Amino acid sequence: MARRSKLFSGLLVSGALLLTSLGLTGVAMSADPVAGQVHAGHAMPVSTQSSPEDPDGDGYIPANPPVTGVVPSKAEPPHRYFHEFQANCSVTHTRPDDPIVYPGQPGKSHDHTFMGNTTTNAASTTASLDAGNTTCKAPGDRSAYWMPTLLKGGTPVLPVGPQTIYYKAGVTDYTSVRPFPKGLRFVVGSPMQSAAEFRAHRGFVEGWECGDSYFNTDFPAQCPNRADVQLNIRFQAPSCWDGKYLDTPNHQSHMAYPVVNPGTNNNICPDDHPVALPMIEFKMAFPVNGDMSQVKLSSGAGYSFHYDFFNAWDAPTLKALVDHCVVGALQCDARGYDQTHPEAGAALDANYRLP
């Protein structure tokens, strides 16, 4: 895929840096933004505490109904370079909660930066998210997205403005991709991964970036101290689902990355995870540069980066975007509009709602 610009405009980034330095981001902060110093990663055992969606606390949340009878597609549709749309969502708040790993246990996680749904906390369920509001451009996207909080000298540094969350085809047969089931949730990466594991991770795209420095597993010691430079990361999620569970005890085994179909260069879903879903890619931008020696994540070093996704999309809205942009092989914005193919129209109206 063609490289996208790693630099925001000088005006936008300098404004973001100023807002951050003045603490004027307008985002609710947790009372303990450096909770990661106590809760270093998910160092405590993964909880098996019961929750409204997992009454027996075994960590399994069955899909209802399950998706059965799917065979991974090996078809080769006409080649198209793009098959994606964006969810543009702003930061809502920070909090040492994780409703996937520690449901119903407020304060047990390291600090997280939340985007999308404004109500996300340790008690969040599919129903509570469905009833919440969102900072995403599309009102139908009430999903919760979160990641460890970035800190500089113990002070949170939060992304400013809508962040880019891509929904792409991870398999060659982009026409086989279907929407996420409501309530699906998973963790991408691990706060306890080593630098080598982070670099070798299937979701690794270009690591930490700033200025002309790419593919960093940890934060660079220095980033150019210019108004147009900030710290960026891109990281991709698995996109093949087992069709059985909305969550599993390790919050990952119900999902898998595509594999290469033997004898070809094509990506297909593995047999035990045959359902092709959109591939989420976080593209986050943090307004920090210059001396990076005091920069870390609430979960630890830069290579402890990971993120969580809890699907609460309005189902018809998500289906419209997936069908129009991913299956339709377009490069769409958050409205489902591809400016290079105006004849295709948009999936959503000017207010980012279904027409």
TrEMBL record:
Highest taxon, organism lineage: Bacteria
InterPro entries: DUF1996 (IPR018535)
Domain DUF1996: 98-313
Pfam families, per database record: DUF1996
Claim: Signal is one of the keywords in the record: yes
Keywords from the named record: Signal
Signal peptide, first to last residue: 1-30
Nucleus among keywords: no
Protein name: DUF1996 domain-containing protein
Protein's organism: Streptomyces seoulensis
